Structure to design on (185 residues):
């Protein structure tokens, strides 16, 4: 590793034949590993401290119009989710509604609790996230990820009805939800 040169890494990246975003992520991982190797004293210097160029296969790189849902399609999905009547088996759809109307990450949505909803101010407090890899609740991804988000009144009305329904069904089925998770089933 100590003989590794920047141009060797550049040649490696050039041969990968990846999309721009995948190549960028791979380069980021390589940089982090080599930075750790320097920090641990395995190598004296990081060969990728200097600029490397991402060479991507244009056929593998999606244009923006293929990366994102069209506004018309988004509105169809949104309207469907806003008009849907949610049951306990529909927590995935309810999660999509919350995510689409708030911009939450999936783990943040899964970690929501009843008390994170402020019906008076129509906001959601985000201060935890579900870590699916470790199967545990943790701090959000970054310190700035702790935030309070405004939520459309119609969504808050749906969530208020959901909480009343959710508590009643869980109680009727003998399911304990001691942490008051919003999407628990």
């Amino acid at each position: 590793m100590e003989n590794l040169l920047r141009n060797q890494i550049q040649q490696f990246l050039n041969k990968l034949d990846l999309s721009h975003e995948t190549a960028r992520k791979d380069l980021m991982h390589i940089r982090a590993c080599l930075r750790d190797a320097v920090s641990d004293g395995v190598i004296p210097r990081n060969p990728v401290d200097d600029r490397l160029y991402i060479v991507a296969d244009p056929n593998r790189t999606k244009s923006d119009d293929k990366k994102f849902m069209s506004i018309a399609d988004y509105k169809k999905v949104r309207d469907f989710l806003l008009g849907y009547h949610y049951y306990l088996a529909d927590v995935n759809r309810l999660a999509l509604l919350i995510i689409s109307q708030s911009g939450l990450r999936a783990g943040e949505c899964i970690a929501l609790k009843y008390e994170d909803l402020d019906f008076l101010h129509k906001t959601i407090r985000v201060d935890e996230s579900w870590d699916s890899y470790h199967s545990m609740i943790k701090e959000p991804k970054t310190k700035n990820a702790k935030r309070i988000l405004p939520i459309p009144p119609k969504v808050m009305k749906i969530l208020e009805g959901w909480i009343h329904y959710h508590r009643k069904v869980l109680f009727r089925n003998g399911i304990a939800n001691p942490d008051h998770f919003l999407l628990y089933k």
Notes: The chain has two domains: 6-63, 69-172. Strands lie at 117-118, 123-126, 129-131, 136-138, 147-150. The chain has a mean pLDDT of 90.
